[in-house]
Amino acid sequence: MTTRRRSLGTGLLAFALCALVFSSAGLFSQEPPKAPAGKPAVEAVKGEVHPAPMSPKERSRVTVFLAWTWLTLGVLLYLLTLKIREADRVYRTGLFRTTEAEKEPPKH
Amino acid sequence: MKLKYSLFSRREFLNGLLGGSLLAFFATLIGPVVQFIFPPYKEPDEVKLPAADYGGLQPHEAKGFAWGAKPGILKKAGDGSLVAFVAVCSHLDCNVAYLPNDRKFYCACHQGWYDENGKNIAGPPPSPLRRLAVSVEGDSLVIKKQG
Amino acid sequence: MKKIRAWIYDRLGVAELSKFGMKKEVPLHSHTIWYYTGSSILLFMGIQVVTGVMLAFYYNPTIKDANASVARIMTEIPLGWIIRSIHSWSATFMIAIVIIHLLSIAFTKAYRAPREATWMTGVLLMIASLAFGFTGYLLPWDDLSLAATKVGTDIPKSIPVVGAWVTSLLRGGEDVTGDTISRFFIVHVCVLPLAIFAILGVHLFLVQRHGMSVPLKAGHRPEKNDFLPFWPNFILRESGVWLVLFGVLLTTAIVLAPSLGPAADLMAPAPAGIKPEWYFLFMFQTLKLFPSRILGLNGELAAVAVMTVGFLLVFLLPLLDNRPAERKGRTITYAVYAAFLYTIALTVWSLL
What we know:
Chain B is an alpha+beta fold. Chain B has one helix at residues 10-37; strands at residues 46-50, 62-67, 70-76, 82-86, 97-99, 104-107, 112-114, 120-122, 130-137, 140-145.
């Protein structure tokens, strides 16, 4: 594979990832000017106990944020398992293993 | 168009996907952190002052008021009209004072001078003082952003 | 670009570090899962540092503004309530995993020679974590935290000779006042972090020096090369664990965000139902069990003495358990089980 094609490919990948990042940031930017308006819907009668601000609008935004977080987490974990499988395979083939001579003596 | 060789190896593709989703995950976290660290400070849209407090102003006299967290100066011009400025120097944000004897605004930090209309006349300030619109509503003065 | 990287690597000596990292191996056996607890603590500590710094941007450690500033964080600052909630929950998670880590080391007897010093530094780290929790609890300055701090700083008074002096040192005077807030704040934000990083450095150095301990009967077969390279195999798995823990923390913090009580009133009577944080509940209940006078001694002093002895036993456990594979070792294991059950039982009892 030539260097040119490799750099082209990486560029395409980087562009796709940036699109992913910006779309996620875009989804998220709905939150910004909201919070000051998210005053606690309930204020206790005696002494001000402040529950977390949960106006209905903010509640739905927070739910979306949580759902998105778990979605990206799910994708990440799936890719991690693929990567772990690959790393284990490489280890089992002994490709990058240190030889017995290079290894430090086992500790205890 | 069919490629003869693939653009990247399977390992590179996997690494790229992993890195990309890691980035996407952390990007969603950067948002709230940044929002938290840079909370929106807004200047007030308007400030109401009791007209009685400012009734005794003579021409070419000025009195201060609070414009949010910044100082403001309300001045009576020579023709009797009221004019208001944000009393912050356009050079490096020091608070300016009104000197009634000279009928000028003076910034002590770097010796900047503004004339009685807020125009920068001497010293380092690069632009005039910011003007605010003054109107009378009943028994209070309403000061708003101009424009 | 490559040249800059090569320059940095050369000056810092990264090559030697990476050589060590590449060679480090993690033993594979039935108890390998406990190896993940240590780094999870580090994850939560990192989260605490970041959220703590962010909260400190807006928090005011003065008697007039402490409660008000926390209220401001929760209502005015965008998403402040999430940051505060994460900080509060991460503290709970961190101490929970510290306890799990301690128990896993105790039950697998990983403190056997030559790892006694690692255990001792670990116990010191646990004390520091609990101190973090204690000092942090006062900072919102609501009536619950005032009461908890009054009780907590009153306990040393029962110690003869130095008791009153220790309490005065903790409180910045005879009573809990604004000086106590300043004191607790600087300890929470400066003194304890420095201490914990120093002890942690020693702890991690010792762990790297002695390698990972293998339990006596875990079915580990070194001859069959039951090892996992630290990089990248173990690190990848660890990252997965971190991500899941982080997701759980975030969800808990958002769904179960803590509220803030009204500002503490120094003159008001203690509110009903005061209790310390969950990790102090068993001590709280133990204190309640002791009568006011026992064997001619002040009851509180007896309780403090018993708890001090208990702590010393935990600290010196590796030295006491010098024959882990024999009957003495098994007896000590049962004792550890019993102590653990005791703390659970008393914690549950204090909640009833």
